[in-house]
Amino acid sequence: MSQPPRIGVVLAGGGARGAYEAGVLSMLLPEMERRGERPNVFVGTSAGAINAVLFASLAHLPAQQAAEAAWSVWATIYRKDVIAPILNSGLKAGLQYFGQMMGLPHRIPGILTADPLAHTLAQRMNWHNLHENIRLHRGLEVVAVTATACHESRSAVFYQEHCPCDNIPLRYSDDTRAIDYIAARLTPEHVMASAAIPVLFPPVYVHQPESAAGWYMDGGVRMNAPIKPAITLGVDKLVIIAGDPLEHSSSDSVTDQPPDIYDAISHLLKAALTDRMVEDVHTLRKINRMLLNNPANHSSTSHNNRTYRPLPWMFIGPRLSSHLGKMAELVFQRNYGHSRWWHRHWDFPFLHQLVQGKGSKRGDLMSYLFFHHEFMQEALNLGKKDALKMLGSSDTGLPWRTV
Hints:
The protein is α/β, with parallel strands linked by helices. 43% of the residues lie in helices and 13% in strands. It has 13 helices and ten strands. The chain has helices at residues 18-34, 47-57, 63-75, 86-101, 115-124, 127-135, 188-194, 227-232, 261-293, 323-336, 347-354, 359-367, 373-391; strands at residues 7-11, 41-45, 142-149, 154-161, 171-174, 179-183, 204-206, 214-218, 237-241, 313-316. Strands 1, 2, 3, 4, 5, 6, 7, 8, 9 and 10 form a ten-stranded mixed β-sheet that branches. Strand 5 (171-174) and strand 6 form a beta hairpin. The longest helix has 33 residues, at 261-293. It starts with 6 loop residues before the first strand and ends in a 12-residue tail after the last helix.
């Protein structure tokens, strides 16, 4: 009997925007299961890593039940579940910086503290189910999270799979792309490392496997949407989910004001989190087109003897790159855009004040850390709506494409 196809889901990073990805999967998974094509490979970076282990831990459940459980997790996330008080952490980092300027032996690992996230991952994720779903092959083949090794600036793909002997070795290095694939028993520290945004959060020390122990930071530094790792891990079809679109429409807005540092940060985020993903998808399309036009080019890889063939894929993301940013700004204004915001708490107004700029650009920057339950709900609903729209774009089944 032939093996069922490996259907992979690539989940990009994006901080609080991870709620959008969960909303997409809440609609997509039940429909895919209805059509006999439920994903069994999850690969994620940063917030995508959280979603990868979350949905993998629910893989033994019927898709609708798994979707509802994941939705519930994101809908009940608050700032205190992810990061320590922003004002306190920021002031502490400022004092450390001042001490360093005065010649004191202070190091500044990060501006904010993500200790609450470690507790949330340990308490809200069912790690036993995750490991058992893989070991017992309960609707799951592979789960992987990506991080960036601080000591050598290479991407590390920590993966756990049902049968390592059927795929890549326990450790495999792709030196062309500077990616190391490392077999591991996934734990909260792997996810914490994947989500450790540089400057904002301190790097995380990963203890196992011992051969790869060391300090790691956010996987999005080098590879925010881990498309290549998913292909290397042996998928037959690929779903890519991100908080940004594949195509960016040009803006008609022109200003005479010179760009400031927040404009620069916005451009850097776009380059790091989106542009590489777009390039990888275009590369996938180009290779698919070549294989479709020249079947004689089919060959085997050197490390796992898999045959190259056109890889069906689909992408789901917001229609506009500013959509989630505008949403974050609107939610903020509804809750804190009045004279009595200090009667609630200081964190989000403080963050909003730090992120200068106007309109969606301010919202874009803020949305990565805006772990507000109302924004979580709005992002979940937008993801569900966009998935429904994508599913409705095909009359013949799931909207798989090759080019």
